[in-house]
Amino acid sequence: MPVAGHSRASALLRAVAAPRRPPSRSIHEGPDTIEELLDRHLVKKPAGVLDDDAAEAEARRRLTSSRREALGLYRDILRATRLFAWPDDRGVPWREVLRANARREFEEARGERDPEVVARLLIGGRDAVQQALDRLAEASRRAVEAEEAKRRGGA
Question: How many CA atoms lie within 13 A of 37 on its CB side?
């Protein structure tokens, strides 16, 4: 008998001293919790697929971002038009003509919801403002050079 007791004690010592491994479960034992059961057996949505609420939230976020960009572009246009003070052929300051045209174009595009079209409009608007400012800077530079040439030639 002492041998049997000794083998039981050594088996206990080995079990306590051995590194702990998670208990293995057979297929038939089942999960510990409901969450584990659901995780194991429910089909998970791929990361790129959104439900209706998530898609609506994403569209709203994009719309808000585009709205912010459009307002920024409109403000930049208004700031840029301050530089166009001379009148056109009818005697109306170019500043007013440019502002009216910008307002009209923004109003026409107000209902646009397609993100690609909105992005294209914003990029086109930014390019147009930059080109107008570049042309204005070039014309101003030429006017200054012409004025200096007159002074040198007339003095």
Answer: 7
Give the amino acid at 155: A
Mean model confidence pLDDT for the chain? 79
Give the span between the Cα atoms of 85 and 66, in whole angstroms.
Answer: 30
Give, rounded to a whole angstrom, the gap between the first and last alpha carbons of the chain.
Answer: 129
DSSP assignment of 102-118 equals HHHHHHHTTT---HHHH
pLDDT at 126: 94
The amino acid at residue 16 is V
Q: CB neighbours (10 Å) of residue 115?
A: 13
Task: Return the number of other C-beta atoms located less than 10 Å from residue 6's C-beta.
Answer: 10
Side chain identity, residue 114: D
Question: What are the backbone dihedrals phi and psi of residue 64, each rounded to the nearest 5 degrees, phi first?
Answer: -65, -40
**With a threshold of 0.85, does the pTM exceed it?**
no
Q: State yes or no: pLDDT of 64 exceeds 70.
A: yes
Separation CA 32–CA 28 (nearest Å): 12
Interatomic CA distance for residues 25 and 36, integer angstroms:
13
Please give the average per-residue pLDDT across 65-87, as a whole number.
Answer: 92
* Phi then psi dihedrals of residue 95, to 5 deg: -55, -45
